[in-house]
Amino acid sequence: MSDYLPIEVTTEILKRLPVKSLLRFRCVSKTWMSLITTPDFITKHLITQTTSTPHNHTLVRHYSKLHRKEIYSVHSDNQSFDDLNAQIEFPFLGHSRFYFRVVGFVNGLLCLSDDLFGYTDTIVLWNPSIRRSLTLPIPRFTFACSGPFMFVLGFGFDSKTNDHKVVRVAYAQGDDGYIVPPEVEVFTIRSGCWRDVKTTVPYCVTENFWTQAFLNGSVHWVAYKLTVKNRDRSFRSLIMSFDMGSEEFGDLRIPESLVSMSPMNMSAAVFGNSLSIFHYDKRIWTSNCSIWVMKEYGVAESWSNLFNIDLEGGLGMVLGCRRNGDVLLAAKGGELVSYNCGTKASTNIGMMCGTKDSYYVDSYMESLVLLIEGNEVVGRKARDAMSSSEDGYPGDEDEGEDDEVENTELWMQSVIVQFTSALLNEL
């Protein structure tokens, strides 16, 4: 049939089909194989998926205490939260201690970093729907060449060039804390390499355990500006942004009531398609979370305190928003919970149990991104890229009891909180 259809018509038909069908259709003919694997078709299919296809599915990642590994699954965002995939095959088991950090999920592509439990330089882009991945080269600024440092990652999409980018903001550690401005590098899939960013970098700090929010073409992080005068430290919290197109930094004001609050207790997020801040009363053993939403992007006066969630009853970290308006949370016991902010009723969903800090939730979509570049390793293999973790982990090197990962999570957070609190003069 394709021999009788103009290539333009064939393209219009194929770009509307699901990923699994397109992967099979590569075997129909050389013409279809050539078409489906071109960058132009992959871009057209991506645009169709992001603009025309309703996103009714949810991606969930958690570290299973029962299986002692991280598990990825896709669920229908309905009342029963049906599991559509019993388990997505994860190709990097054994490549990290416990689990990877999920930096972000954009256009069907996950950005993973093995930096949660020590100094490593492994960053992977992975498309679970086509089972292809790309391991990034080692960045220029590392512990081996620069000594103690802290870095934060951002992941997003540049619509001008139709390219996905990873930005890495690295802060060297000095006698009085982190040195600003930081070193900034950007990796693009098309170039396959890191390059330094020459734009002006703001004199503020964003910590590596804070989440990113990719919205309106920019990555956003909670950050703070620290001022030291006559040995007195003062700070103000804000949101730092990085535009994936212009590769320029910016900042956004946060609600006035949060400016003087500790940035350690805040996380940037996308909530209901809006930029938001999750503000906890404290980072560890938290008992309350307020959700702030910027109703009009870029307008500081539009910040609104949408919900205040009491976490005393066993609830833990806020993960995101469902289509029905409920909030997804990770319970302190490890269950995934759907919480109704009106009735304050919570329901365990998903039939899973993991450590509360290992949960990641996002709207799920499939794409052909990495169909061309995937399964390439830029400069090294993922396993070879694993740097030796720093000494000081509690417990044995091998996985031990079920609670080892939770103890390690708590230990790592405590160290970070103590260090940052000292910088902010809160201890």
From TrEMBL:
Gene3D superfamilies: 1.20.1280.50. Pfam families: F-box (PF00646), FBA_1 (PF07734). Residues 393-405 have a biased composition (Acidic residues). Residues 383-405 are annotated as: Disordered. Coiled coil: none annotated. Residues 1-46 form the F-box domain. It comes from the Eukaryota. NCBIfam families: F_box_assoc_1. PANTHER family: BNACNNG10540D PROTEIN, F-BOX DOMAIN-CONTAINING PROTEIN. This is F-box domain-containing protein.
